[in-house]
């Protein structure tokens, strides 16, 4: 699993991680984070009788490389690099499986996917998307899901799920004069790209 260059920059100015905190915007050992989430996902799939095939596992590993959303075609390119073919259904089937299995989330704002930090747990998180660097943090939604559920009752709307997304700037991008440190896709900006560094 590769390191994302923006993760190192984020770790420099980010607050320390607290237990059960959204970790994307905090300093943490990303390799340990990847290994822990992958192990949880494998255990969840095994206990639920779900097949984490090689292509599905590789897709999850790709999503775990960075705390950001990745589009299906970006995932497809990476899968092809690993010998899994280059037809769109390869990526879409694997991503759909991971979302249905509770191992990934769909990030509608950016038409992408991100690895779930709590695989197998029934939850409806708030996905916080940094417009500066493209990082995505998963945080508990607390009462937000309840509020949406209560709003659905008088309309007799049967709620199947809640997808709450917040857009703004992460602590590292705010510390960088509010201009952001990345290109919105998880890669640091160069001086020439207007990043101010």
UniProtKB/TrEMBL annotation:
Name the UniProt key words of this record, in alphabetical order: DNA-binding, Metal-binding, Repressor, Transcription, Transcription regulation, Zinc
Q: Which residues bind Zn(2+)?
A: 130, 133, 170, 173
The keyword Metal-binding belongs to this UniProt entry's keyword annotation: yes
User: Entry's InterPro entries?
Assistant: FUR, Fur_C, WH-like_DNA-bd_sf, WH_DNA-bd_sf
Q: Which cofactor does it need?
A: Zn(2+)
Cofactor remark: Binds 1 zinc ion per subunit.
This protein is called what? Answer: Fur family transcriptional regulator
Q: What is the lineage of its organism?
A: Bacteria, Pseudomonadati, Pseudomonadota, Alphaproteobacteria, Rhodobacterales
């Amino acid at each position: 699993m590769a390191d994302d260059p923006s993760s190192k920059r984020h770790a420099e100015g980010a607050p320390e991680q607290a237990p059960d905190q959204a970790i994307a915007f905090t300093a943490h050992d990303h390799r340990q984070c990847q290994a822990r989430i992958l192990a949880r996902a494998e255990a969840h799939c095994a206990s639920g009788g779900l097949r984490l095939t090689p292509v599905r596992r590789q897709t999850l590993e790709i999503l775990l490389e960075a705390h950001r959303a990745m589009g299906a075609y970006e995932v497809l390119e990476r899968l092809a690099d690993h010998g899994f073919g280059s037809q769109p259904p390869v990526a879409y089937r694997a991503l759909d499986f991971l979302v249905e299995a509770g191992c990934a989330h769909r990030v509608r704002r950016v038409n992408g996917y991100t690895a779930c930090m709590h695989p197998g747990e029934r939850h409806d998180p708030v996905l916080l998307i940094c417009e500066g660097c493209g990082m995505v943090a998963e945080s508990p939604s607390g009462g937000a899901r309840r509020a949406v559920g209560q709003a659905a009752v008088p309309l007799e709307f049967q709620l199947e799920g809640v997808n709450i997304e917040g857009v703004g700037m992460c602590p590292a991008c705010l510390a960088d004069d509010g201009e952001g440190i990345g290109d919105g896709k998880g890669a640091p900006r160069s001086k020439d790209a207007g990043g101010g560094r």
